[in-house]
Amino acid sequence: MTIRFDGQVAIVTGAGNGLGRCHALALAARGAKVVINDLGGARDGSGASSDAALAVVAEIEAAGGEAMANGANVAKFDEVQAMVEQVMAKWGRIDILVNNAGILRDKSFGKMPIEDFDLVVDVHLMGAANCTKAVWDIMKAQNYGRIVMTSSSSGIYGNFGQTNYGAAKMAVVGFMNTLCIEGEKYGIKTNCLAPTAATRMTEDIIPDQRVLDLMTPESVTAGLVALVAEDGPNRSILCAGAGGYARTVVYETDGIYLTPEEQTPENVLANWDKIDDATNQQELKAGWMQTNKFVAKAAKSLGIE
Length: 305
Ligand code: NAD
Prior knowledge:
The protein has helices spanning 18-29, 51-62, 77-91, 114-142, 153-156, 163-183, 209-214, 217-228, 265-270, 272-276, 287-301; strands spanning 9-12, 33-37, 67-70, 96-99, 145-150, 188-195, 237-241, 244-248. The chain is an alpha/beta fold and 305 residues long. Strands 3-2-1-4-5-6-7-8 form an eight-stranded mixed beta sheet, with helices on both faces. The longest helix has 29 residues, at 114-142. Belongs to the short-chain dehydrogenases/reductases (SDR) family.
């Protein structure tokens, strides 16, 4: 089975460089009309230029594909809405949204100006929210949509100097979780990609060129294309890098039940090993399932099944 996107329209944010560029080239090569959104700034988000986006459009057109450039700043809802209106006027539908645009402002938390926290959250979280909001009703009306949030191991697990980035990257996981619940009946699937690749974002973290050579954007893009395929998964965090593919899952331990008399902080600490015990842990698919689990344990203690 070959994955194709003929007749589909995709928006890839931050598609002028790195992973976004590679995603856009792959989607276009498989038949999608692609919007190459890019503000064209530096790695820290300063500046702007249309050069990178125009170069990717030229590359796609030279290969026989269709693309348009757009310079909207994803952190600005009015610019994003104007982009979506432009796409609808030209191509009449939007099937795929890849929220990929991103910047870095790394510093240990104590040294980080709060403005750097704000800006990173604005681009990664609000950028994804703005773009998703702008296409959501269109996808609902079409009864079809595929959305990807770009998360990161820095958000899922933490990385020194990246409180701002990590917070925003985990926030998009929470965003995805509810979008999946709300989008299911409209044929909209949402997933997260947690990539690791050699791009200008990572060039100074991994100095060994031989290792960088293994971390191709193409290896990540294979995962992205799978996520936005018609038969792709829903509500998954796909981690991809250097040819490795894995799924991050949040499990909740079965936990314990304490009677009202036992509900003291001392008892919570004394039972930590049981609270932490992974036996019978579960992947919960909605917040209410946790409430149900706890209420069922409490009810059982009263003899209510
Ligand atoms: P990159 O810097 O090469 O590309 C990011 C692109 O986003 C740039 O072209 C930039 O101009 C664009 N951009 C930045 N702010 C924008 C804005 N406000 N509006 C529109 N465009 C904007 O970086 P990359 O490594 O290709 O990263 C792509 C995504 O993957 C990012 O979300 C990043 O956080 C994430 N990521 C990358 C890695 C990695 O190993 N490279 C790891 C984890 C997550």
